[in-house]
Write a structure and sequence with these properties.
240 residues; globular; binds cytidine-5'-monophosphate; single chain; alpha/beta; TIM Barrel; disordered C terminus; 47% helix
Length: 240
């Protein structure tokens, strides 16, 4: 698989567990996401090690600061050789442009978080955001696109809305994925891999359905089959 669409969220508390788990995966079947907790404890060394295993890495640190600081952080992350990084779209246009310009000559993809899915309407109201969440998400996604970013993180439901208004090559990265009849854990707005792909997602961030599986490689293979089945249907539809 040249462009695996599953990004495994490596949500482990330390480097040893993270590396042990990654060694059970197949770099041809997935990419890997490293977030704040693991990066804070294990740092760039872990990223280097995962790259030695051959994985492409999404470094999920969600930068949000003044433009100059974010640009520097993006440059530093890109120099680690990671595949994708992200920033908060709420940092505003100047910050997004500074981040994008810092990566202009680099291969690293830059995406934005629009609204954190943990914020409900009353949380948003409290910080002065009175519109419907989906309207804010759409506006921030368009802002990210206009600033030259490569995509956004969004729920599978938001992906369907965003696909209607945003250019085709803008990539949508979707967490909250579960197989039918599986444990939702603490996720509330979940979608199956097939629903997410049909809604226009390009990449699916999947954690516990793989990290807590008794056979992670088998789960990864099954999830990829689900995705391939629906991707093939989409191609057949287009051919007809
Ligand atoms: O275990 P699970 O599949 O729920 O993991 C999803 C991953 O995606 C976690 O690393 C989580 O932090 C991340 N994420 C999310 N929802 C968002 C953004 C990121 O679940 N809106």
């Amino acid at each position: 698989m040249n462009n695996p669409r599953i990004i495994v969220a490596l949500d482990f508390p330390n480097k040893k567990q993270a590396l042990e788990f990654a060694s059970r995966l197949d770099k041809n079947l997935c990419r890997i996401k490293v977030g704040k907790e693991l990066f804070t404890i294990a740092g760039p060394q872990l990223i280097e090690q995962l790259m030695v295993y051959g994985f492409e890495i999404f470094l999920d640190l969600k930068y949000h600061d003044i433009p100059n600081t974010v640009a520097g952080a993006c440059r530093a992350a890109s120099e680690l050789g990671v595949w994708m990084i992200n920033v908060h779209a709420l940092g505003g246009k100047k910050m997004l442009i500074a981040a994008q310009e810092a990566l202009a000559t680099k291969k690293t993809k830059l995406i934005a978080v629009t609204l954190l899915t943990s914020l409900n309407k009353s949380d948003l109201h409290e910080i002065g955001l009175h519109e419907e969440p989906i309207d804010i998400v759409q506006r921030l996604a368009l802002l990210a696109s206009n600033c030259g970013l490569d995509g956004v993180v969004c729920s599978a439901m938001e992906a369907q809305q965003l696909r209607k208004i945003i250019k085709k090559d803008f990539c949508l990265v979707t967490p909250g994925i579960r197989l039918p009849n599986s444990n939702a854990n603490d996720q509330t707005r979940i979608a199956t891999p097939q629903e997410a792909i049909r809604n226009g997602a390009d990449y699916l961030v999947i954690g516990r359905p793989i990290t807590q599986s008794p056979d992670p490689l088998l789960s990864l293979q099954q999830l990829n089959h689900e995705i391939e089945a629906v991707s093939n249907t989409v191609i057949t539809d287009l051919e007809i």
